[in-house]
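hey team, just a heads up i'm posting the complex here instead of the shared drive bc the drive is being weird again. everything in one block, sequence lines first with there labels, then the predicted structure for the whole assembly after. its four chains so it's a bit long, scroll down
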Amino acid sequence: MRRDVTLREVADLAGVSSRTVSNVVNGYANVTEHTRARVMQAVEQLGYRPNVLARNLAQGRSGQIAVVVPYLDTPYFSELLQGIIRAARAQGYNVLIDQTDGDPDHERMLINHGRSRLLFDGIIFSPLGLDQQALADHDPSLPLVILGERVSQGTFDHVGIDDVTASRQATEHLLDLGRTRLAAIGDQPYPTGEAAQLRTRGFREAHERRGVAVHDELVIATPRFNRADGAGAMRHLLDLPEPPDAVFCYSDLVALGAMHVLASRGLRVPEDVAVIGYDDIEDGAYANPPVSTISPDKELIATTAVERVLLRIASRTSLPGMELRAPHRLVVRESTVGRAAASRTP
Amino acid sequence: MRRDVTLREVADLAGVSSRTVSNVVNGYANVTEHTRARVMQAVEQLGYRPNVLARNLAQGRSGQIAVVVPYLDTPYFSELLQGIIRAARAQGYNVLIDQTDGDPDHERMLINHGRSRLLFDGIIFSPLGLDQQALADHDPSLPLVILGERVSQGTFDHVGIDDVTASRQATEHLLDLGRTRLAAIGDQPYPTGEAAQLRTRGFREAHERRGVAVHDELVIATPRFNRADGAGAMRHLLDLPEPPDAVFCYSDLVALGAMHVLASRGLRVPEDVAVIGYDDIEDGAYANPPVSTISPDKELIATTAVERVLLRIASRTSLPGMELRAPHRLVVRESTVGRAAASRTP
DNA sequence: TTTCGTCTTTGCAGCGCTGCAAACAGCATG
DNA sequence: CATGCTGTTTGCAGCGCTGCAAAGACGAAA
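-- predicted structure starts here --
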């Protein structure tokens, strides 16, 4: 097993200093065409490839950003991740992935640079177990971008959509279809559930605007936004004396879980119960029936998050926290309007 | 912005050599309880955290493994990834993720250590664009574990399930339900489609065992295993003069796509057409109706893959290629047997 | 007391690269 | 011919850590 070729060996072969080889390899500074050619030939001949570790140590950066999500198998995150990886790679950054399972201690550790320095230069983070206070206490020297809605200010950016407006639109859509007993699945009335609370706010605002009262007993809290929680909440709702005739689910997964229960009870969607989700994951579009939903511009969210974290890395000074809103749209499918062809509303 | 605390500073405070601090921090060698306590106190006091980059450079390893999949938003991979990340982290390794989109050049680059050395110590790889020959030509100094079935031998391991047997069982299940016109969606009759071909083999073997002829025109090739391909193939099948009464899909996504089309054409599953998938992703279990499927032991696949790649990293000598088979089971749900309670077959 | 063996601690070199500032052209200007 | 200028190349130190081998400490055995 041959040792790796180093800069110095290339330099010796090309008859120049190792620093010059470095300059050529990195496209730095001014190098004569003649020198460059000589060096490049030596590089080819020896099959030289730079050692990133050494480079990074010398530069005091790792060239990596961490992306931290609570659960990797959540389709919404997988879809987002794709965009993030692409955007980061385009800027020469590698992406390190971590999953926290919502563990607050683990999350706290990560936003304080993890166990060791220089493992990643910045972090894109979707917190689940941390409340505002914990987030505000993060290591300010670590460039941080938060995914999803948060209400606090701090030395970090938020990238997300306007949850209140989106939720209001989803709810208005249901009300405008003539539904009267609307349920909401996914509220989280505790400190770490801000995103959920914003959606509940939108749900209520829609009722206000339409002059209808909210049926408080139909607003169901769930610890997570997954299928199982959606299914459990739906079962509960159907067991009520007066079940809902429409459900606003705070994620498409919740909607899929709810629809699963509806189907197993022999109820028709949307005839008996209309269902709308949130996130526009691919599963929803292919579900039976296809799920109406709020569709955030994921590609833009991904590129914006990467852009911001790299910006923060580049500017050594600490930037003020920014609130970045990506656009979203209401996607109407069969789960609310039946076999009518899917149409779109901005 | 304070400079980071170094080993030497801790050493000075504790009144020992930096080498001793290193020994304590890493739990190396024999250190007196007294010394350890002194050092630990200094570590606490200064808030020392090791610099992984420096450590790795000195050790000539990166402490990272790369996991490379064609598409990140494929639920099967997301689910696998979770297990891989957990297992790797338990061994002190970080996971670098990359997505190739099936691009052969990109894939070829990765199995030859990427653009630079020391970025990752080993790689767990799910190839899509590379054929046997390209895989065999990989840099033998890079510990490599391939996910999924492959027929070749080489200086790398395979981790997967027994595709032929699993596919045979899925097909037998359909035949045993009394179905006579079985379709298969997902064949890939070209060099990079070996996994698909194994499934087709299982499909054919089942027919042989039951003494039934395969309807060749019902074996449909698709470039990928996603919903869109499943939907397209299903449309084609339904447009045939004699459509199938059962479909074996080479992935659950394909099955979901197919079921989507069946529903939109007003056909009932399983009454009109029985559908079985492959992979046992969560979407399948929550689909309407829930999809029967082949369920690979993903957790075991993940831990085995990590175990093997770390083993190869640890043993500097090149190990012979191994074929590692994880168990699988047939999971029977409504998409093949209707509302009968889901039961299990080994 | 000396010698040996074991356990603990240390010093030094160096992983492969880049930052920095100095050195060295080569050429035009005074 | 000295001076200054721009453009190119170089040498050296050092990023923060660990491998290695040697040194020191300490008690047991001779």
